[in-house]
Design a protein that fits this description.
Blueprint lengths: L3 E4 L6 H12 L2 E4 H10 L3 H10 L7 H13 L7 E4 L5 H13 L6 E6 L2 H14 L8 H23 L4 E5 L4 H16 L6
Parallel strand pairs: 1-3, 1-4, 2-3, 4-5
The protein binds adenosine-5'-diphosphate.
Adenosine-5'-diphosphate binds next to α2 and α3.
Length: about 200
């Protein structure tokens, strides 16, 4: 298997690049944001509970997203690998993910971390809010709260994988194709190695 975390702050292009990467490498895309939005649109209990946090720009509690990821891993047993997008977002989620993968005799091969300036992030998110229909994109206060949550709770997830030398920084500004090429070049290089032994 080849398991990859696409990492970066809100608006760094994880969703856009994930779509292209899963098509090229036949990985299963697991986006906790998409999974949560699907729960919300189906008005499930989990979705209604999660929405309260998301509308404020706060993170949803760890046990909720870990449960969703656990189910998704179990429901996708015969895949070439996973692309995690928007997960893990806290140190606890990272530890749980490592344990869940270890039970399946695999691991995270790499964290590709997109770097984008704060000014560019806000510009992109405000623009996305004009068309996406996402309530958390349509209010600059909520956008700023999400970026704050990222700095407070999520940025440390990179330290977790840095300790085992699995973080590669990728410049997240430029055209979509340029960024896609930077990501693909790294993946091509890493796929030749066996990182989970
Ligand atoms: P973005 O990264 O652009 O903010 P996402 O679609 O990844 O968008 O996430 C939207 C919201 O869903 C987050 O602000 C947060 O409330 C919630 N969320 C998504 N993934 C997680 C996670 N792994 N842990 C906690 N909350 C999450």
């Amino acid at each position: 298997m080849f398991n990859l975390i696409l990492f970066g702050p809100p608006g760094s292009g994880k969703g856009t690049q994930s779509e292209k990467l899963i098509a090229k490498y036949h990985l299963k895309h697991l986006s906790t944001g998409d999974l949560l939005r699907s729960e919300i649109s189906r008005k499930t209990r989990l979705g209604l509970e999660a929405k309260k946090f998301m509308d404020k720009g706060h993170l949803v509690p760890d046990e909720v997203v870990i449960g969703m990821i656990n189910d998704a891993l179990d429901n996708n047993r015969d895949v070439a690998g996973f692309l995690f997008d928007g997960f893990p977002r806290t140190a606890i989620q990272a530890e749980e993910l490592d344990d869940l993968l270890a039970k399946k005799n695999t691991c995270i091969d790499v964290m590709l971390a997109l770097e984008v300036s704060e000014e560019e992030l806000i510009k992109r998110l405000v623009k996305r809010g004009e068309t996406s229909g996402r309530s958390d994109d349509s209010n600059e206060m909520v956008i700023r709260a999400r970026i704050q949550e990222y700095h407070k709770k999520t940025a440390t997830v990179a330290d977790h994988y840095q300790k085992v030398n699995k973080v590669v920084m990728i410049k997240g500004e430029g055209t979509i194709e340029e960024i896609f090429k930077r990501l693909s070049d790294e993946i091509d290089r890493l796929m030749k190695l066996d990182n989970c032994v």
